[in-house]
Amino acid sequence: xxxxxxxxxxxxxxxxxxxxxxxxxRQVSEALVRHLHAFVREIEPxxxxxxxxxxxxxxxxxxxxxxxxxxxxxxxTLGVSMLVDAINHxxxxxxxxxxxxxxxxxAAAPELECGSDIAAGEPGEPLLxxxxxxxxxxxxxxxxxxxxxxxxxxxxxxxxRAGGPEALSLRARFxxxxxxxFWFRTIxxxxxxxxxxxxxxxxxxxxGRHPYRPAHVHFMIAAPGCETLATHLFLxxxxxxxxxxxxxxKDSLIEPVVMAGPGSTxxxxxxxxxxxxxxxxxxxxxxRSAA
Length: 291
Ligand code: BEZ
Ligand code: FE
What we know:
Blueprint: H1 9-17, H2 23-43, H3 47-62, H4 70-77, H5 80-87, E1 126-135, E2 145-150, E3 171-175, E4 181-187, E5 192-193, H6 199-206, E6 212-213, E7 216-222, E8 229-235, E9 254-255, E10 258-260, E11 263-264, E12 270-271, E13 275-284
Parallel strand pairs: 1-13, 8-9
Antiparallel strand pairs: 1-4, 2-3, 2-7, 5-6, 7-8, 10-13, 11-12
Helix pairs in contact: 1-2
The structure holds benzoic acid and fe (iii) ion.
């Protein structure tokens, strides 16, 4: 077939991808062509605009390194990461809600003993983080791996600073005790702008948007037989809770920073002096209930 024009090009491309051996590849390809052509028909780009759009995607790719994932930022800031997350967690029952993973997770964070200070040497207001992990049937989960990471008191992650992997800070993995509890010391994180010195930052400015996320602590919690949970605790009262640039805030993930101690705390820490604390019981979804 030849002589493609506005009226027949979409059908022609759909026919071309209809023979994909994999039904899923066929479904995805057809939807991609239908939606992409509809988008172009709606916006009617000039040739110059289309060249700039391709330049934007090219720049997004060039911005990516081992520690900078501009495509994740693009997905996050367009709400696609949270949409994918919502689609994949439709039937979670009373399980702790998930939220966007973000680009600053490091798989190789050190495993530390409960009670460790993950902020050794960092300036900031000391904070106790303590919690527990249980299954949906109420059983405490011992030996769950609680991976945690957060920004410093100026809103910067370790991997954003010069220094390489040996400079990891404000992140660690803990193992829950036999009652499913964990606790560690750190500092109060600050709200921060996502990296906005690349094409995603240009996009946000062009859209008249700010680049900020409210203050939060990330958690990735894994245990056999359960769906791995990627979530945050947002600090009650933080700026930007109502305008998170990546649409990640859920009311049920906002927790107050309270005064704890001195003495024993509800999750097993012993404090010689009173200090600020962030607390949470996490509930992992049964792996079989994953969407
Ligand atoms: C984060 O919370 O670490 C994050 C999430 C999405 C984009 C950028 C950062
Ligand atoms: Fe974060």
